Amino acid sequence: MTHWGLIGASTIAHEWVIDAIRTVGGEIVSVMSTSAERGAAYARDHGIAKSVNGVDELVNDPDVQAVYISTTNELHRDQVLAAARAGKHILCEKPLALSLDDAHAMVKAARDAGVVMATNHHLRGAATHRAMRDAIAAGTIGKPLAARVFHAVYLPPHLQGWRLDRPDAGGGVILDITVHDTDTLRFVLGDDPVEAIAVGQYGGMAKAGLEDAAMGALRFKSGLIAQFHDGFTTKYATTGFEVHGSEGSLIGRNCMTQQPVGTVTLRNVDGETELSLNHRNLYQNTLAGFEDAIAGRGKPLCSGEDGIWSLSTGLAVMQAAASGSAVRIEPGL
């Protein structure tokens, strides 16, 4: 049983990750919040024994073996470095950092310390995406040629705040949602993006020059092209993920979500077939893979290096939207 410390008394931990840790057999022994009052209330509400106010106090606690970091994005680097120095395994929220140099330093620190580091791209745990990945790997749709991601949603009031008004914290739709699209595409296709074009939109939700919606396209090493639409502003849209190949298409619906839901339809010369899906809590799949990696049974579902790829692509999309030009994606791996 892994003993966990939470760095950040966050909504995502409250809604998803605490239960996932406990379901796979982990125990949460401490939570860190810079607000003593919030931290104490959070610990009490979630049955966590300790509440501390500093990262060093949490990572140097001998009872803590692994940390889950879900603070605002600009804080991730120093918190990961502190955890690595203390020899703790690390599950960090995306994006890993606000710069590639910082993300590389984080991954290197974990590698040098001999600890497991993973990025919490939860969509790798979706039954829909795993079924699509397996079908593509089996050659079911022939050569993949194009993909489309519809990930425009409405950001609920309890998640608004820094995502809409803090560029210094990595706010805006691209570092919040487009990075998920990137990781999902890489995971499902087994392919890497090399170039981005994009336009941003300012629909009135975000402040301080942050985009609250974006559209664009990515070109991949294989020649595949992928279109994406991401947003905080679309109250009535549905999400979807399509991959179109030389011999068929996979149509995912209601699948770019934290919920274990959605469908995948295979369309080919024989007509339409629904793929069989084994829906399970996405975060449980992530945590189960993390626990296996700690035990020496393979790698985490989404590694630190994968987090560098999604950050690199997100930064390229931001640059493309600002410049109006195509931008190379260069993760430096």
From TrEMBL:
GO molecular function: 1,5-anhydro-D-fructose reductase (1,5-anhydro-D-mannitol-forming) activity; nucleotide binding
Keyword list, A-Z: Oxidoreductase
Domain Gfo/Idh/MocA-like oxidoreductase N-terminal: 3-121
Classification via InterPro entries: Gfo/Idh/MocA-like_OxRdtase_N, Gfo/Idh/MocA_oxidrdct_glycsds, GFO_IDH_MocA-like_dom, NAD(P)-bd_dom_sf
Signal peptide: none
Documented EC number(s): 1.1.1.292
UniProt xrefs under Pfam families: GFO_IDH_MocA (PF01408), GFO_IDH_MocA_C3 (PF22725)
Cross-referenced Gene3D superfamilies: Dihydrodipicolinate Reductase, domain 2, NAD(P)-binding Rossmann-like Domain
Record domain GFO/IDH/MocA-like oxidoreductase: where: 129-250
Keyword Isomerase applies: no
PANTHER family to which the protein is assigned, alphabetical: BCDNA.GH03377
Protein name in UniProt: 1,5-anhydro-D-fructose reductase (1,5-anhydro-D-mannitol-forming)
Lineage: Bacteria, Pseudomonadati, Pseudomonadota, Alphaproteobacteria, Hyphomicrobiales
